Amino acid sequence: MMFIVYLTVVALIGIGLYAIIFKRNLIKIVIGVSLVECAANLFLVSLGYKEGGVAPIFTMAPHENMVLPTPQALTLTSIVIGVAVTALMLSFAMNYYKSYGTLDATKGRLKG
Amino acid sequence: MIFEHAPALIIAFPLLTSFAVPILNRFGEKFRNFFVLLSLLFSLFFVLTLAPQVYSHGVIVYTFGSTSPGITLPSGYSMPIRITFTIDGMSIFMAFIASIVSISGLIYSWGFLKKERVGMDKFYSLLLLMSVGMYGMIFTGDLFNMFVFLEILSIASCALIAFWVHKGETSEAAFKYMVVSSIAALFMLIAVGIFYGQYNALNIAAIASMINYNLLDKIALSLLIVGLAMKAGAVPMHMWVPDAYGQAPAPITMMLVAASQASLYALFRTCFTLFGLRLDVAMVGWIIIILGILSMFVGVTMAIPQKDIKKLMAYHSVSQTGYMLLGVGVGLAVMNDPIAFQTYGMKAMEGSIFHIINYALYKGLLFLTAGAIFYKLKTRNLDEMGGIAHNMPLTTLFFIIGALAIAGIPPLNGFASKFLIYESVYRFNPLLSIIAMVVSVLTLASFVKVFHSAFMGPKMKKNVREAPRAMLLGMAIIAILIIIFSLFPAMVVRTIVDPAVIALANQGNYISAVMGGI
Amino acid sequence: MREMSRIVRTVSHIMFPFVIMFGFYLVVHGHLTPGGGFQGGAIIASGLALLIVAYSRSRVKKVVKKEVLTTIESSGLLMFIGLAFLGIGATFFYNFLANSGIIFGDSVAYGINPGNLNTAGTLPLMSIAVGLEVLAGLSIIILMLAIGSLAGEGSR
Q1: pTM for the whole thing?
Q2: Would C93 disulfide with which of B53, B64, B85, B133, CB 3.0-4.6 Å?
Q3: Would A57 be classed as within a structural domain?
Q4: pLDDT at A111
Q5: Which range of residues forms the domain containing residue A81?
Q6: Nearest CB to A85: which of B155, B190, B202?
Q7: How far is CA A47 from the centre of its chain?
């Protein structure tokens, strides 16, 4: 069962890196970064999975079989950071479009 | 005792001020600038008070949210569950760099960005956040926390690279840097997930005490090395360096240099403290050495034909990063062999860690002089410069100090650290040492070219004056430190570099400080 | 983008208070039920996104002032770090209000119970601080991206 989740994680990382490396459109690159981020989040959440466990809500559950909330807290933190990163990258893409009139990464003026 | 809380306060003061800047801004520019400087001075003060404690105790632990800072293991637990800061000689060494660079960068930007009207409040809050990110990465004893601070650092620095938003190039450079650093951080996050899945721990010391170097750990190690080397700007992943360093405002470029050093610190922390001797030291050591050699050589050969002064310096920083990787890689490669480690491995690490602080200082100074030239001449192209020495004598003096230091000319500090590296690496493998020397000669050649085409020659027709006083003060702070380091290299190595090397090499101390006496 | 049709506007008019209320519910109950500062704040900010979609961007821009949002954002952050500072008697971030009997100071009952809002010490206060910060921060991001694609102003 968990095998499928880990396979999905690897596949998502692969697709994301493909988009980042081979796509020219900046928005597609942003999508690629978001995909890798989704893979990392999925991986973290799946680490916290436990057969027959209950959600860690203190007032609603019996003491036994409660899953540890740490991986969920980690995932949440990484989602928050991901929002900031995506917003920042989209605004850079917007500025790029405004100044160059295109979203094509190969039309950039910096040849690093 | 307030000094007991020094590790938390070092981060808390800049963080508090950074959040308060939009409010402080209402009371006027001078008032805001004063408070920003004050918070950084507070941090420096606490770093200086923390240093003697660290040097006498070895490792200082600070646990957030517990009843007393020293309690890492609450009663009944065998694993640290709270966020801890673990500060040893290496962390405090990096903290010196972070505080010096932030303070002089701040003072410099008072002059450099005087004419900017919009967004200065955001500039200062992001600058403080960058400094918080550096301190956090350096002090934290928790892998996930390190990821969070890495992201704070990269978000703040990306926003600052694109400070001049109306130019498309800055957005392009910032986008590039953001993609690279978010991929690096996500690699790190996946590695953290792998460790958490296996050992149920996030604390570096807790993981280090349990790690067994199986296949999953190897995957995590390679993810960490790739990610952090990418952020530090080592060669196969260096394409963001010239763009980001070239487009950012000069004080931010200097901060970015220190930010790359923080990633380098995280890389060393991973290799030495997290894995330690369980690592396949010879192989990982050679990987780091090869990364270093490639960075040194490719960086300097790319730098020589550059026409843009900041881009040229950026390629040199790729090349200088190589020296640090080389020295530490040699140290790591011989760690299994106590005799070799004592005779030259230790020296190699000493050299490259001493090089970290020297590099941060002289590279920072060079970027600041380039910024001063850009501020006055409005160009970064070397062909359009000439005869600046007539107009800006002090800037020229600072440039000469920086350029001689980077090229490793004897009385200056660059020579001291490079000599330690040559000497010890020669005993490990003579060829590596010879490559390092050749790179040093090429560096000198390239800076002679810059000096000749920008500073020498007939007086310029344009009436150019010396840079504003705040900028000169920012440069002078660093130049004075360089001169002090050049005059007393042995003392500096003894007082701050040696404890850092010992802290890196002694993994057991770090673990027992957090996990209790083992 | 022009205003959308009357149906959309009416529905979003009805939905908007509920979205905001749900967001605040999540923020305040952060220490008892799933949710908390970030989730609640994000939902409140999505209420603003609803308004931007339903009405025109320029009209929303006139009502929602960026300066107000910036002030809310930094006051939320200051409240968060201030609470951390207040714990400095023991350590930074120490939960000095827990089990103390004053505000949010009740001790938590064991077993299955409906949940007492007045527990958990500084955690609900921090949740509220984070909620304020996130609602303002995300609103600024949404607003700036929406306006930025309209006029020649940067998103910073």
Answers
A1: 0.90
A2: B64
A3: no
A4: 65
A5: 2-46+67-100
A6: B155
A7: 16
